[in-house]
Amino acid sequence: MNQHSETQRPVKCSGCGIKLQTEDRELPGFIPESAFNREPVICQRCFRIKNYNEASSVSVDQDEFLRLLSGVGEKNALVIHIVDLFDFEGSLISGLQRFVGNNPVILAVNKSDLLPKVTNWNKVRNWVQQRCKEHGLRTAEIVLCSAKRNQGFDRLLEAVSELRGQRDVYVVGATNVGKSTLINRLISDYSDLDQELTTSRYPGTTLDTVKIPLDDGHYIIDTPGIVYPWRYSELVHRRDLDAVMPVNPLKPAVYQLNAGQSLFFGGLGRFDFVQGERQSFTCFISGMLKIHRTKLERADELYANHRGVMLSPPAADIMDELPQWQRHEFRIGRNSLSDLYISGLGWIKINGTEGAVVAVHVPRGVKVLTRPSLI
């Protein structure tokens, strides 16, 4: 956009108030050159919401998001926090409770369709509740759902109806957790979108939320998706996302290992069984990632010789774009029923009762931790 054209064109979106730009369709405020002829002049995101009931969320880092959310605790609000069950600890918003105050929170746990059909869902719900408690998050309702298969959304809408009253509805979540699908469903159930979209600007931010008018004069507030750099979904090249993020139900892969054996997950990570009695480990990762077993003493050599080819993704041409691998060691207690969780890549369930010393090698910055077994 040259200086002359800027003086003749609107600078801000008349829908959400964001500054308009034509350079990058992935960034907030994008508008195609041809769209300046439309009336009103609105960004691509508002156009999609207004014309196609399609919310395409923009993203911010956690600090900016929490600044944006400050003040919600003083409002009369219902907060829907959507998380990814496959990457639960990586997508949960840490510290959300201190911002929402006494307002009710519905936790929508998306991608429940990835777990095996024989899963005990009451145990999963209890597991989620316990994880929330450990993170200091109080929930008025926990709904297991699947945006892809449209499962659980009726129950979610029931919970919204039960808890909303005279409240605005704030929808919050990390990127790639299914927030847009939820927003679209809320739009179709609660709003005819005849009114223009309006803005809600919070102090200390330059990025606006989008307020979607409801039929009763209240609003759905669509907040930007949060970028958490410790998740594989934010780290890998876009062309490798399909391999990392499963779309079909997980097929648990069970490996009987002796101490001194390793498993590679493509070229993205490595699991070492360092010490302990022979035992089984169950890997819950995308079926698009091949698992290679080798001896621990040969693992470094195998990686050096086959990274980017046999051990892929990522391919050799983008392998060096990832941070250097970092080793994380864990001592698993006897009878602990633990998962070794890797944010965005999946988890390894430790099945043995005798305890073990294990290690994980992943790009520096990826969140790795142990937790009580999910299933």
TrEMBL record:
CP-type G domain mapped to chain residues: 66-229
Cross-referenced InterPro entries, in alphabetical order?
G_CP_dom, GTP-bd, GTP-bd_ribosome_bgen_YqeH, Mito_lipid_metab_GTPase, NOA1/YqeH-like_C, P-loop_NTPase
Q: Where is the signal peptide?
A: none
Q: Which GO terms describe its molecular function?
A: GTP binding
The record's annotation in NCBIfam families points to:
GTPase_YqeH
Q: List the protein's name.
A: Ribosome biogenesis GTPase YqeH
* Lineage of the species this protein comes from: Bacteria, Bacillati, Bacillota, Bacilli, Bacillales
